């Protein structure tokens, strides 16, 4: 196309870069990315996100962060996908501090965290044994404009129980009613399994009775 003197559109550049990335030719994709700027083509958040995502998948986080900084420097708009992709990658390599700092760069209302953002943060904190940070995060959900359901809390409860932090799990479980949330069969199964695993039969039995009273059935095959 270029050899014929035809100038590719931004959509075409995006397709070509995606194709190069799928073939593990990210350097070729970057050449097109640089060529776009040289040709005066406007690069948008979608194109940046494509490259950032593939750098992260290729475990080239340094290059991904360099592109993110370029977005800031050249005042390109970032979106929640940009942040979620980088947050997930930072937690995977145990860079919790950097992930925390990156989350702080999400400017409201320009970029609003979504449920995926909070799932990434909660899982990342807990998997890196930063349970205090995980609980602080849960507290921020109360003042968030997002409407989180029981599934988000189930995810955190599950991680806390698996980490052996039953006191923190119990504390969070006890706040669900006050948050206007209704514990479901998954919630109870997570808590019962956690207490049973750590041989706290009194709480296991109490939760089982409460669960039965509310008409829930223990999900044996859940774990």
UniProtKB/TrEMBL annotation:
PPR repeats lie at residues 9-43, 44-78, 79-113, 149-183, 184-218. The keyword Repeat applies. Keywords: Repeat. Belongs to the PPR family. P subfamily. This is Pentatricopeptide repeat-containing protein. It comes from Fraxinus pennsylvanica.
